[in-house]
Structures are given as structure tokens and as C-alpha cells.
Amino acid sequence: MQRYRSGPRLRVSWAAAYSDFGRYSPIRDERYGTLSTGLQIRNNATDGAFEAVIDGEVVGRVGYRLRQERVVLTHTEVDEAHRGKGIANQLVQAALDDAFAAGRSVTNFCPFIADYIADHPSYRTLVDPEHPGGAAVPDRAPRSDVVHDAS
After folding, report:
1. How far apart are CA 71 and CA 99, in angstroms?
2. Are 104 and 82 contacting, i.e. CB atoms less than 8 angstroms apart?
3. Where are stretches of biased composition, namely Basic and acidic residues (predicted)?
């Protein structure tokens, strides 16, 4: 599995990105349900990763470590055959929503996650000001190529 690189055009749901904080269970839970595409997002706490699973196969992950009251996000990766389907976005959203629900701040070392947070400003408050990580969130307006779907 190769690490996901930022840059491709993203399509995200406005409702999913902004109005569903806390819809995922706290970080210690293992399953986050099945999406309409057959994609399952689960928290593999043993391996420290949110995993995207299609037909029983792990096709992507967001790695993390727990440090006191923080979640340290280390990387995002999606199998090349499954890129461009929004899987990385779903994984990042699950990880960030889970941190919010658990009352944890986020330390980020992943450039893709930094771009995601920049494009979804409501998540900026999760970034720990004392320990922001090595992939700083760009101080810019959300990208214009992100389509916010209000449906």
C-alpha cells in the first residue's frame, strides 16, 4: 500500500463534513458502519489505524497513536487501485470526528490531513496549539475545487 499524496480534486459532502461531528463512536470502538458504496470504516485500535475495508480487504488507513489527551495522526494511505473514490476523505473524517467525540486534540504529521483540515475549517479547533505536528495546516481559504454538496 502506498501513502496517499495530496493534490487530486476532492468531492466531499457538506453535511458529512460540517454537521455530523460526533456521529462516530469514541476511538476505542471498533466499527463505524457500512457506507452506501460497500465501504466500511473501522477503528483497529490494536494496530493504531482507522481502516477502510471493501469486501473484507483493507484498502486504506489513517495511522494514529494516542498520547495522553491527544491523537497523533501519522499518515494516510489508500491502495492505488482505490484512489480517487473519496476513501481517504472518509478515513480522515472518521479519525477527526472520533477525536472530537472523545474530547481529544489532534497532532498531525500527514500533509493530506493538513490539506483536509484547511478545506474543512470546522476541524481547525481540533489541532493542538502546543503540539500541532510536523504537517501544519495551511493558513488559507478552503480550496475552490472542493465541491460542497448540501444534499
Report:
1. 7
2. no
3. 140-151
Q: Which domain range does residue 105 map to?
A: 11-136
| Whether the Cβ atoms of residue 115 and residue 135 lie closer than 8 Å to each other | no
Q: pLDDT per residue over 14-63, tens digit each?
A: 233 333 333 333 333 333 444 446 899 999 999 999 999 999 999 999 99
Residue 147 pLDDT exceeds 60: no
CATH of the domain at 77: 3.40.630.30
Overall domain count for the chain: 1
pTM reported for the whole predicted model? 0.71
117: burial class by Cβ within 10 Å (0-12, 13-18, 19+)? buried
**Range list of H helices, 19-103:** 87-102
State the distance between the two ends of the chain, measured CA to CA, in whole angstroms.
33
130 domain-assigned = yes
User: What gap in Å lies between CA 118 and CA 98, rounded to an integer?
Assistant: 18
Q: Please, which residues bridge with residue 40 across strands?
A: 34, 53
